[in-house]
Amino acid sequence: MNREVITLQFGNFSNFVGAHFWNIENGNSRYSTPNEPSELNSSILFREGENSRGRKTVTPRVVMFGLTGSLGSLRKSGNASSHSCLNSDVLLQQESLGQKVELHEFPPIPKSDYLKSLENPQVHENPSKLPNASIRETDVNYWSDFLNVQIHPKSIYEISGLHHKCNPFVTFQHGTEIMKNADFSEEMFDRVRYFVEECDNFQGFQCLADVHSGFSGVSSLLLLEIRDEFASKPILTFLNTPYDDTSRLKKKFWNQRTENTAFGFCNLYDLSTSIIHQNAQNWTTSNFSHLNFQKKSQFQTTALMAASIHTATTPFRLSSQSTNLSSFTRTISSNFSKKLSGISLSIPIICDQNRRKSLSDILKVPQLNHQRGDRIRPLFCESFMSNMSIPDLSSWKVFL
């Protein structure tokens, strides 16, 4: 049995996180061979299908929610075989009868050099020949600029009437107002239901959500519908918050962001089985002493968040079927008595081969959630490592 998990992504920042995450998962599946199969069961997150030419496709089992114009050069139809340069975006706005119609037109969005490298015909015939082209951060304006997986048409949902670049979508209330529109809410839920109905052994949901913007309201109300429909299925939620320079932010904007986080956190806490907050606001370069990164870079901070999600969720995606999503969330939530969990990341892990260390010594790593004051010793801690081996360690589970 595949034990399928459906991923939901809400907002532009979480779609950046998701693009990195799917690149990581796609890379793992590419390098598995019959002689050396991957330790991860890719069918948990990916689905098989056929394109219009009858060729086999492998696409993420995901629904990505965003505003119009946030796709970059990715086709609005979510064509599973390629990216395509969009025609000019045209947005018509008429808030109520009698008001003047506003027309916003945006020029075509060119493909990044990285995406152009994916157009090699050999790649379409054999995805394992995907080139290891370098990605220049200066070329990245949209999360689709570096996404190297094929996307199913049902995986992309754009909220029409609001444009990524010209419409404010900055409050929790903006998101809830969108969801009060029956057409929007039904269309969103139909996307989720589509992927659920094709599953054989559906486990639950993995959710990546912007909590600082209007998508905190969108995710709250959609997860409420999901919780009503799939009450027995676990929901593992990662709340993702970007860095913003507080010295340049207006007080009103900062207050809005704080308010969105509070409303979103409270609602998603009640609806999720387990919830983890990744907040780049307080990250420092000293947290990652062996890594050169800029926390002001959305591309870099989301890559770190994706790496942490990939590693932390490894246990319920193992081919050995040692655990499932329900038992995983139960474990990190102390049997559901405490839904809120923290997450730490060490990248890379530096090991002294000549000095024997315990796992807890090696993993003295920075918290990725918002934290002030003295570090609180957790009642329970579980550590996971990905794509590496550490000598003299017989178990990956540690109780503190």
Automatic annotation (TrEMBL):
Task: Look up and give the organism this protein is from.
Answer: Hirondellea gigas
Identify the domain of life: Eukaryota
Misato Segment II tubulin-like domain location, by residue? 3-119
Q: What is this protein called?
A: Protein misato homolog 1-like
Q: Where is the DML1/Misato tubulin domain?
A: 136-318
Q: Which Gene3D superfamilies match?
A: Tubulin/FtsZ, GTPase domain (3.40.50.1440)
- What GO biological process terms are annotated to this protein in UniProt? mitochondrion organization
Report keywords, A-Z.
Mitochondrion
Q: Report the locations given in the UniProt record.
A: Mitochondrion
